[in-house]
Amino acid sequence: MLKKQKLAIIRAWYPNAMTTIDSVNRLIDFVEETLELEPTQVMLADSICSDDVNSIQYPARAMEFLGPFKMGGLDGFPFTGLTGMGAFASHVPDSGAVFIYYGPHIGITKTGVIGEIHRLGQHQNSGCCGAAKGALAKLLTNQIVEGNITELDYQMNTIEQILWKQKDRIVQAETPLFEATEVIYEAIDKRINELVAQTSYTCKYVILMGAVLVNSDSDMGSYTSAKRFDVIDLTTNERQDLLAHFN
Fold first, then answer.
1. Is 220 within the bounds of a domain?
2. Which SS3 state, helix, strand or coil, does residue 83 take?
3. Ranges for the Limiting CO2-inducible protein B/C beta carbonyic anhydrase domain (predicted)?
């Protein structure tokens, strides 16, 4: 299947999607040409789901950066919190930048089915993101109890509470799983920005890229639908929204 055919399938759901390979290539060009930094001056952190497919489909060129530091747990929520952000911030080169890529993920098969992918070696499709689908199933059957977060399933319970707070919006949506993923993205974006605001960095720039990471079948690869691309100049405290330029 040609690249343009693959993109057409993904863009039926996420019109601005590009391959994760292209998104990393574009980022490296930006770092080198606009910020005038080498990739080895950039410390990468990601807050994406711990699902193994995200490791399998991780773009190779991302390894040109330092890291990655892993901030995310189930469906990408930054469960490492302030301690994780502070640790990550202390690892960055003084003259460089931090780059934080974050957001939930969702599967789309080559036939356009959302919430599933065909994984290598399996005969049938499996859920993606399984945590989001599980939390949504509990939401739709009224099994989520407000404020219920346990030690045994802390991360899953947190995802459940995020959805519970937006129950009406999700239940009334044309595609509840798509809407649930949007809700989770918004919660992650809010938390990342809270953590950044309370963290001290000794480098020149903080680059924030919020997105929905779209996984697909093993022969389709993965895609990024960017929702935020902000650059904070720490020498001036100026924050620029460059999403239009990135897309």
1. yes
2. helix
3. 19-233
> Is residue 221 domain-resident?
yes
Q: What is the pLDDT of residues 146-176, one digit of tens each?
A: 999 999 999 999 999 999 999 999 999 999 9
Total tally of structural domains belonging to the chain: 1
Whether 136 and 163 have beta carbons less than 8 Å apart is answered as yes
Question: Cβ atoms within 10 A of the Cβ of 77, count?
Answer: 25
Residue-wise pLDDT for 42-66, tens only, equals: 999 999 999 999 899 999 999 999 9
Q: Assess contact for 128 and 215: CB atoms under 8 A.
A: yes
- For the record, the structure tokens of 124 come out as 């049938």
In a domain, 174, yes or no: no
**pTM attached to this predicted model:** 0.96
Rounded CA-CA distance 229/242 in Å is 5
pLDDT digits (tens, 9 = 90+) for 93-123: 989 999 999 999 999 999 999 999 998 888 8
Hey, what are 224's tokens? 């990024």
Q: What is the pLDDT of residue 113?
A: 95
Domain that holds residue 85: 3-122+193-246
Cis peptide before 104 (omega within 30 of 0): no
Residue spans of beta strands (DSSP E) within 96-140:
97-102, 105-107, 116-117, 126-127
Which residue in the block uniquely carries the two structure tokens 């060129």?
61
Nearest to 225 by CA among 30, 57, 19, 74: 19
According to DSSP, the β-strands at 116-117 and 126-127 are antiparallel
Q: Which residues of 31-66 are buried (b: 16+ CB within 10 A; e: fewer)?
A: beeebebebebbbbbbbbbebebbeebebeebeebb
